[in-house]
UniProtKB/TrEMBL annotation:
It is found in: Cell inner membrane; Cell membrane. The chain crosses the membrane at residues 9-30, 141-162, 174-206, 226-249, 284-311, 331-350. The lineage of its organism: Bacteria, Pseudomonadati, Pseudomonadota, Alphaproteobacteria, Hyphomicrobiales. This is Microcin C ABC transporter permease YejB. PANTHER family: INNER MEMBRANE ABC TRANSPORTER, INNER MEMBRANE ABC TRANSPORTER PERMEASE PROTEIN YEJB.
Length: 368
């Protein structure tokens, strides 16, 4: 066990390094950048992500040297014509782009190893502070989505396993597959049109998690107002997760129902309820329970980006989206590093959960 955990932890370092390296290389060839963003703001043409003129390369790797001519410096950036080249060089130095790409990557890795993610380019606040501010919104969505998914999918999956092949199983499977096929963001837009004043009913609010003046509401009205705001985002996010968890539960129970010990329990005179909840339930739920950490982290990090953007929820998903548009690279790389690290740790916790729930599972014996 100790050796397996040690190997998994050691593998995290090259994995994180590889993720950062690939992302850094991709950004080198991405159009636009923070320098162009500032120049666009100065010229009054800021679009949140302007494009570099052909042949210029990326803002993260300016090629002009200190002794370059004014024309050479200006030609690297759209909107730089007519500006003092010394001013542009100061901008490059301010964003750290006066250093070669390998040096900047090495410095980023060194800082990230000490959990120093720097400050946002355009918000004048540290990346850690930004994440702390946005974390409650995303965590709220992730927790409620995971709980809602488990509370509905597990009973439904058990019912489908017991009634396998029946009309109930057939039509619920059809509904689940249809729901899984609909993208969450598309379903969110549909809900807005139907229920949030788009074209039909105006039942639910369109943005935010609370109403104006929420702090002055009585405690019970705060709860009602919160769930009133979170209903549409939550339903939109959970739509696809229902299918995966329901079918996972059904197939897990079906595998156990067909095993010899179930036939033995029935032969001893146990009722179907006793067989189902006294014998099958514990074994069938192993894979479902052990998958809880990864299911939560998936809902927490990967499922909220578009939903937070559509419903204007100020969480980590919207922060990441805006940071990419604004070329706010410290926030982009900082959140990427944290999300990747958390994902790797959660995967390890999931494996250890399997071993804790079912001691027969031994990852130590596997080839790593």
């Amino acid at each position: 066990m100790t050796g397996y955990i040690a190997r998994r932890i050691l593998l995290m370092f090259p994995t994180l390094l590889g993720i950062l390296f690939v992302s850094f290389v991709v950004v080198q060839f991405a159009p636009g950048g923070p320098v162009e963003r500032v120049l666009a703001q100065l010229s009054g043409a800021d679009t949140g992500g302007t494009s570099r003129i052909s042949g210029g390369g990326s803002d993260l790797g300016p090629r002009g040297q200190v002794g370059a001519s004014a024309d050479a410096v200006s030609s690297k950036y759209r909107g730089a014509q007519g500006l003092d080249p010394d001013f542009i060089k100061k901008l490059e130095a301010q964003f750290g782009f006066d250093k070669p790409a390998p040096e900047r990557f090495a410095l980023m890795v060194w800082n990230f190893s000490r959990f120093d993610f720097g400050k946002s380019y355009f918000r004048d606040v540290s990346v850690i502070q930004l994440i702390k501010e946005k974390l409650p919104v995303s965590m709220s969505l992730g927790i409620w989505m995971t709980l809602l998914t488990y509370l509905i999918s597990i009973p439904l999956g058990i019912r489908k396993a017991v009634a396998d092949g029946s009309k109930f199983d057939t039509w619920t499977s059809a509904m689940i597959i249809i729901g899984f096929a609909i993208p969450g963001f598309l379903f969110a837009i549909l809900l807005i049109i139907l229920l949030a004043g788009g074209s039909f009913l105006n039942i639910f609010p369109l943005r935010g998690l609370t109403s104006d003046g929420w702090a002055q509401f009585p405690w019970y009205w705060k709860i009602i107002d919160y769930f009133w705001h979170i209903t549409l985002p939550l339903v939109s996010m959970a739509l696809g997760a229902f299918a995966t968890m329901t079918l996972l539960t059904k197939n897990s129970f079906l595998d156990e129902i067909r095993k010899q010990y179930v036939m033995t329990a029935r032969a001893k005179g146990c009722s179907e309820r006793q067989v189902l909840y006294g014998h099958i339930f514990r074994n069938a739920m192993l894979i479902v329970i052990a998958g809880f950490p990864s299911a939560f982290i998936h809902a927490f990090f990967s499922g909220s980006l578009l939903i937070e953007t559509i419903f204007s929820l100020d969480g980590l998903g919207l922060l990441g989206f805006e940071s990419v548009l604004n070329r706010d690279y410290p926030v982009v790389f900082g959140t990427l590093f944290i999300f990747s690290l958390v994902g790797l740790v959660i995967n390890l916790i999931s494996d250890l959960t399997y071993m804790w729930i079912d001691p027969r599972i031994d990852f130590e014996a596997r080839e790593v």
